[in-house]
């Protein structure tokens, strides 16, 4: 276990905890599996995550009870928003049971899930009934040949669209739709995606392709800057910037200017590469096996499973967490360079997207 420095004051009295750059701990992303039913070329390329890849053993995974136990402690130190992710969270059996346990925690103001949507059409109602509030669905193109080349398992667009509609019908709304834009791969799909979701009630967000992990062969040349995405869309569908919903919101919001249609809606751009938002980052990530990462681009985590399983009480776990957060100084996206891109960073499928 990586041991943070011993601190001299009672840590729970400091909640909400601020890190060394004054950033509070507000959001926790929880990865419930390192497995996925897609092999997106920019995330889990088949050459690495093929038949021989050793995924975590079941006994290594945190149980739902362990996750909920930890989540309660995180909430006591300031976390208000929880997001269930992975890997693909819907491949973890009975994840609805985890939803129910998390939503019951006093102080949780938002509970969301990020999913590729493949299994969503059948699960949306059960997830809503269990207490899930919102979903974000990843979809990189409406063109089947592009999308299938990207997910690399031949999964059709139509079934993801079914999942999105089922989620909205179940009340998991507004549904956010995330599109990672990679130059020369799906940048030609930007405008058709905007047109498809404009006025739909769903919020489309364009994500800059990032150098997460170290298996996707990231190059700066592959990144389509958000400014370019906005130019492509704005040339056909005029846009105006709008205020963030809250401090630290990762997406910059733009609304369609459409005199004839008040419900044209909005889009978001997430510019982690060209306009880093580290200064407001209040997110921690809990891996499937209970390691805490204080940055998406981290190279090492802090082992909470060991504490959960060695008889530690809430106070000890809470002190450990607070000590980690108090010394946090991560700001990877602000110091990114061609050199940092090759660091042995943790894979997104493991750490949780
Ligand atoms: N399986 C779920 C899904 O597909 O949404 C959750 C996990 S996935 C890792 C979470 C999000 O991260 C997806 O929207 C995915 O497109 C995005 N993502 C993965 N690798 C990325 C990269 N290199 N750059 C930007 N976004 C990435």
Task: Briefly say what this structure is.
Strands 7-8-9-6-5-4-3-2-1-10-11-12 form a twelve-stranded mixed beta sheet. The protein has helices at residues 64-76, 95-103, 120-130, 144-151, 157-170, 190-197, 226-236, 305-309, 314-326, 332-335, 348-351; strands spanning 27-31, 81-85, 110-115, 134-138, 176-181, 203-208, 239-242, 252-256, 266-270, 283-286, 291-293, 302-303.
Sequence-ordered SSE layout with sheet pairings:
Blueprint: E1 27-31, H1 64-76, E2 81-85, H2 95-103, E3 110-115, H3 120-130, E4 134-138, H4 144-151, H5 157-170, E5 176-181, H6 190-197, E6 203-208, H7 226-236, E7 239-242, E8 252-256, E9 266-270, E10 283-286, E11 291-293, E12 302-303, H8 305-309, H9 314-326, H10 332-335, H11 348-351
Parallel strand pairs: 1-2, 1-10, 2-3, 3-4, 4-5, 5-6, 6-9
Antiparallel strand pairs: 7-8, 8-9, 10-11, 11-12
Bound molecules: S-adenosylmethionine (SAM).
Describe this structure in words.
- The protein is an alpha/beta fold and 353 residues long.
- The chain contains 11 helices and 12 strands.
- It has helices at 64-76, 95-103, 120-130, 144-151, 157-170, 190-197, 226-236, 305-309, 314-326, 332-335, 348-351, and strands at 27-31, 81-85, 110-115, 134-138, 176-181, 203-208, 239-242, 252-256, 266-270, 283-286, 291-293, 302-303.
- It has a 12-stranded mixed β-sheet with strand order 7-8-9-6-5-4-3-2-1-10-11-12.
- Helix 2 (95-103) links the parallel strand 2 and strand 3.
- Helix 1 (64-76) packs parallel to helix 2 and helix 1 (64-76) packs across helix 9.
- The longest helix has 14 residues, at 157-170.
- The model is unreliable at 5-11 (pLDDT under 50).
- The site of S-adenosylmethionine (SAM) has 20 residues, from strand 3, strand 5 and helix 11.
